[in-house]
């Protein structure tokens, strides 16, 4: 089970916070998350011939509503240059990582 | 606040407000003593099994059959009076402990077991009693025993969750509040596993990545880890964000370790036959594999199509016998299997429910049942540093009330923590302005049962 439900026998002022590895397996391996990552990658890189740098900036604007830092951009560019081996493009893998990141899950 | 300043961490102002987190992250916890047990397997019989049909023989009930119970009773019973157990009791093992004929397999391993016959709990209703047995408190929103143990002792295996709950269906009274971390840090929640289908990828959803090579996935999670740590650094190393990062790493490693630890198909035909092939038996076998892999606390729940099968208000004798046939075999197999593997000495096995059942009948057209009974019941413990072939405490001649050495649930919890090397008075967590304990302001360790 990914997420818990409260006991209906008592009032519950707020949902209690849980963090389990089972929830994370959903984030990194589920077909749902992979599908969202593919769509995000397509939306960002689609038919644009812009550079990775521009695409990274668009992804941050869309997901986190901010500009990436220099360090974040460097990490992204380096990752996107790695050779592809499996069934997903590096852009899809990158989009997936950003969707699974704490910044996506938590609102400050 | 004064305590925090004198303890050397925390500052006034913003950092002071965050002091609780700093304290939780830096305080050295247990063990406080050399532990006798390293892990717990709690076999929970949902609905509450009858003590007088299992481990607490009461021949006086026969003599006083159909006599009305006297003294303070929580509600006026609809009863024809005392109902003796129809099951024969006999002495077993070198210890000669009397066990009901409904438990032939446990009778054979009784010399490994400690039977507590003087348990009692506050309220004879499932929800509060379940919560009390799991969290010490009759109302929800307190951390569970397994969460406290995780918090106090940490994990023995970084590749698996340290706290796992197994049950064949979602149907269970109270539900996740029974294994909640509540206000303890978020990683101390149990990983809840439905055991209806024992294939590893059904037990642990999404355990496989079918798209990336191992190298690619490692690269992806390295990137994610770096991004998460940059995010964390700007947010005062927040504990919850950190728990998320740790859970991600556990999930990555779990992909490999779970394929082995969760796979009961790797057991021999002989071993599987010894446990039986019922859903409860499968969970017991899986519990043993997880204990072997270093999981700290494994809760196994006996539920089926009913959310509390041991709640035998009707046709008690018939239903009790059926439930025992399944539970007895698997429980005894687990105890002897752990013993053969040298794991029983530091694995505490517990068998029992949230309370007992009335020594008097609960009349029903379908056939007499037994009602909820909180003032006396029995628990079985085995291994983990408890004395084998030992009985502790007693109930009165009718099994109505705990008499000698009464053991409240708080005492039971204090004793389990002691076996695990923790002082229940020192295992505290500051929340909402005060220190909380599993045992609240109660609890006495039953030193007599410790070997």
Overall outline of chain A = elongated
Range of helix content of chain A? 55-70%
What Rg of chain A do the Cα atoms give? 17 Å
| pLDDT < 50 stretches of chain A | none
Oligomer: heterodimer
The pLDDT mean of chain B sits at 92
The overall average pLDDT of chain A, rounded, is 89
Proportion in β-strands of chain B = 5-15%
Tally the beta strands of chain B: 15
Helices and strands of chain B, in N-to-C order? HHHEHEEHEHHEEHHHHHEHEEEEEEHEE
Overall number of strands of chain A: 0
Shape of chain B: globular
**Largest sheet, strands/sense/barrel of chain B:** 9 strands, mixed
N- to C-terminal distance of chain B: 41 Å
Helix content of chain B: 25-40%
Structural class of chain A: mainly alpha
- Total helices of chain A: the number is 6
Radius of gyration of chain B: 23 Å
User: Could you list the spans of chain B in which at least 5 consecutive residues all have pLDDT below 50?
Assistant: 1-27
Q: What class, by secondary structure content of chain B?
A: alpha/beta
